[in-house]
Design brief:
This protein is an alpha/beta fold and 326 residues long. It has one domain: Rossmann fold, CATH 3.40.50.300. Helices cover 30% and strands 20% of the residues. It has 11 helices and 14 strands. Strand 9, helix 8 and strand 10 form a beta-alpha-beta unit. The radius of gyration is 22 Å and the shape is globular. The structure holds iron/sulfur cluster. Iron/sulfur cluster binds next to loops. One of its GO terms (molecular function) is ATP binding. It holds the Pfam family ABC_tran.
Length: 326
């Protein structure tokens, strides 16, 4: 069991020297073997800060991130080396993430060299076969400019898989690809996580791609997780108004079937000085007086958690003289 718990982390300067924001705040989840977990949210919601913190590349200002039961703060040099082998990343932009001066073989050799792994040629060929770049001879000596966008992303996936990791962190892995290539890469990722016994955290702003590969989805808004649910449950019956708006924004393929849209008003508020209250309240069609207090992230059903006052037991809440929950 891998467990990541993150509280009040990710203070980030964002160019304004003295203004710090909590880019990720009070986020808590675990990732089990073979599980594929999605993190979805608009750009600026804290997804990338979360990813960098999980990789140990951002210093957290509090909380714990446990890997195989041990917190990062207890890691020595050897632990970090093992961690760097066990946790691999697939980046968003295959056009940027491959060195234009290196052939496919040279790109895939680097992680093997760093971790002192032998039988490199055989391993490279097997991994190219795994990501369906066949026959390997056709691709092994090519440079990135001799590959299509989809082939480049397959090389990035091969680089992530070649060390036989336990966890893959995928950061918008198909957003730079055309729609037909996206479908092929998503299918491949889904197949590989199943066959290779790998867990994955899949981060994206695109709910349709996240729902294709993930068992469970975490919806993030302004640094906090506002809803967590198994994928199909979330798609069928979202509980948080923001999750509902995201789902209603997915285009419906059948033009005769119309989905009721919940168009969000306003834009995401400035993350500086957010203070108390639900962070979504300025855009929420269901806003109530009590939403000026921060909702707790509570389990509302088995496997489902929501941070929204709509899902509290309001009978037990204190009320003002008008009868409004306070
Ligand atoms: Fe809307 Fe209130 Fe729920 Fe926030 S807590 S999402 S403002 S109903």
């Amino acid at each position: 069991k891998y467990f990541a718990q993150n509280r009040s982390l990710g203070d980030m300067a964002l160019g304004r020297k003295k203004d710090k924001i909590q880019a990720v705040d009070d986020v808590s989840f675990d990732l089990r073997r073979n599980e594929v977990k999605g993190i979805i949210g608009e750009s600026g919601c804290g997804k990338t800060t979360l990813l960098m913190t999980l990789l140990g590349l951002h210093e957290k200002s509090g909380g714990e991130i446990l890997f195989n039961g041990r917190d990062y703060s207890e890691f020595d040099k050897e632990d970090w080396k093992r961690f760097r082998r066990s946790v691999q990343v697939i980046f968003q932009d295959p056009f940027d993430s491959l060195d234009p001066k290196m052939t496919v073989k040279q790109t895939l050799e680097i992680p093997l060299e760093v971790h002192g792994i032998g039988d490199r040629e055989e391993r490279i060929r097997d991994t190219l076969d795994m990501v369906e770049l066949r026959p390997a001879d056709r691709y092994i000596d090519r440079y990135p400019n001799q590959l299509s966008g989809g082939e480049k992303q397959r090389v990035s996936i091969a680089r992530a898989l070649i060390l036989e990791p336990d966890i893959i962190l995928a950061d918008e892995p198909v957003s730079m690809l055309d729609v037909s290539t996206q479908a092929v890469i998503l299918k491949l990722l889904s197949k590989l996580t199943e066959e290779q016994d790998v867990s994955m955290i899949y981060i994206s702003h695109d709910l349709s791609t996240v729902s294709y590969v993930c068992d469970e989805i975490n919806v993030m808004y302004l640094g906090r997780i506002v809803e967590t649910a198994p994928t199909m449950d979330l798609l069928r019956s979202p509980k948080h108004p923001y999750a509902e708006a995201l789902i209603n924004a997915i285009p419906v393929p059948n033009p005769h079937k119309k989905r009721e849209r919940t168009d969000l008003e306003g834009s995401t508020p400035d993350p500086i000085g957010l203070g108390e209250g639900c962070r979504f309240r300025d855009r929420c069609p269901e806003r109530m007086p009590i939403c000026d207090t921060t909702p707790k992230y509570l389990e509302v059903e088995s496997g489902r958690r929501v941070a929204c006052h709509l899902h509290y037991d309001h009978e037990s809440l204190p009320r003002d003289t008008n009868g409004d929950a306070v």
